[in-house]
Fold this sequence. Notes:
Blueprint: E1 6-12, E2 15-22, H1 25-34, H2 42-49, E3 56-58, E4 68-69, E5 79-82, E6 85-89, E7 95-100, E8 105-108, E9 120-128, E10 133-139, E11 146-151, E12 154-161, E13 168-175, E14 182-188, E15 192-197, E16 200-206, E17 218-220, E18 230-239, H3 245-252
Antiparallel strand pairs: 1-2, 3-18, 4-5, 5-8, 6-7, 7-18, 8-17, 9-14, 9-18, 10-11, 10-17, 11-12, 12-13, 14-15, 15-16
Signal peptide: 1-20
Protein name: LamG domain-containing protein
Keywords: Disulfide bond, Signal
Amino acid sequence: MKTNSIFTALLIGTGLVATACIADPGVADDVGEEYGIEEGRVGEAEEALQIAWPVAAWHFDVNCSGATAFDSSGNDLHGVRSGGVNCAAGAKGGKSLEFNGTNGKVEIPDQAALDFTTAMTVSACVKPQSLASGTILSKWYALDSYQLGVSSGNVLFSVAFPGGQWGVTKDVTAPAATGVWQHVAGVYDGANLLLYRNGALVASTPASGTLQQSSRPVVIGNHPSWSAFNGNIDHVYLYNRALTAAEIGTLKAECLN
């Protein structure tokens, strides 16, 4: 039998202090089951989780039809599912969440680990049925901080800096597609906004400063109760640093061959 392995971590705040590799196949599968990773995809998820350990990681494999969306990062940033959300086939096996485009969402309560300052990455596998307007993930609205979504035929990554009523917004967009799985990632590195689609850098724009902090929850599939996503979402990650192009490619491999 092939031996699966998975990393666990001791984290203080958002800093990685120590890691340990669990090589026992039974333990690895138990960890995967506890944190929402289907048994057959533990090894695949492990590879992505080894990228400097994400702040949050939602896979939706285990308890896919339940009320809780488990975070497999070790930070216990679990979400609560509500509205029109169904369990469906995932990007490469396993499960995903299918959002109905009206009131479906997964809401993760605000915590300090979800507030970023001068760098961040948000990544997801998505299969939108509409590109008119829809939120993949947001920490947005009174005050704005960051969001990834679709709008007017494009994938959109936005961040906000302090200023004005809700914040000073910077956006980057690029064309997307409907009805097919694709990987999308937004990166802020302190000097630029970068947008990746299917592992390729497709758009960038200069942006600098400290991101605005928001007390809003993180919401997957909504914003927080409008601009609802219509389609499937899988393998959602948040990082408190700017991932490299090679690391984005590793995450892309969870969605596409």
